[in-house]
Amino acid sequence: MDIQILNVTELRQHLDELIELLQDAVNAGASVGFYPPPLSMDEARAYWEGIIDSVDNGPRRVIAALVDGRLVGSVQLTPETRRNQLHRADVQKLMVHREHRNQGIGQALIQRLDEEANALGLKLLVLDVVLGAPAERLYQRQGYVQGGMIPQYAISADGVLETTVYYYKLL
C-alpha cells in the first residue's frame, strides 16, 4: 500500500478510479453527500473535476491509497481560508473501496492526513460522520473527540433521516 498526496496531474491520471471509488461508496450507502443512489458516472465525474479545480486553485489536498498502483481509497484535507480560521481544516470524504476495507487503509489515510495537517501548521481538524458508521470508530481510535450531534441532519441511502456526529482533533 502506498499513501500519497496527489497533485493535479496525478488526480487526472486516476480520475476513472476516483469516479469508481465515489460510486462504490455512494452505492454501498455511505453518507458522502450524494442522494439517492445509484450515483451516475456523469455526476461522479463532475464532482471530481470540481475537486481537481479546487486542488489546483486552493489549499485542498487529496490523499490517496494505492494498492499495486491502483487507487482504492482517498480522503481530503481542506484548510480553511477565512483569516480568523487559518489554523483549522475540514476532513472530508474518507472512502475506501469495498473490496479493500478492513485492511488498515482508512487508518493509513487518516494518519497521513494528520501528518500533512501538522506539516501545514494546522491546530484543529474537524469532521462529521453518521452516528454508528464504521468510520466513527476509526476516527475515535485516531484521537478524534466527539464534539456534538445533530439529529435528522442527513438522508441515508434508504431515505431515513440520520444523526450526524461532529468530531475534532487538536494537533
Protein topology:
Elements: E1 2-6, H1 8-13, H2 15-27, H3 41-57, E2 61-67, E3 70-79, E4 88-96, H4 105-119, E5 124-130, H5 134-141, E6 145-155, E7 161-170
Parallel strand pairs: 4-5
Antiparallel strand pairs: 1-2, 2-3, 3-4, 5-7, 6-7
Helix pairs in contact: 2-3
Shape: globular
The helicity comes to 25-40%
Low-confidence stretches: none
Radius of gyration: 15 Å
End-to-end CA span = 26 Å
Could you give the order of the helices and strands? EHHHEEEHEHEE
The CATH homologous superfamily: Gcn5-related N-acetyltransferase (GNAT)
Percentage of β-strand residues: 25-35%
Structure commentary:
- The protein has five helices and seven strands.
- With 171 residues, the protein is of the alpha+beta class.
- The protein has one domain: Aminopeptidase.
- Strand 2 and strand 3 (70-79) form a beta hairpin.
Keywords summarizing the entry:
alpha+beta; Aminopeptidase; single chain; 5 helices
Kindly summarize this structure in a few lines.
With 171 residues, this protein is an alpha+beta fold. 35% of the residues lie in helices and 35% in strands. The chain is built from 5 helices and 7 strands.
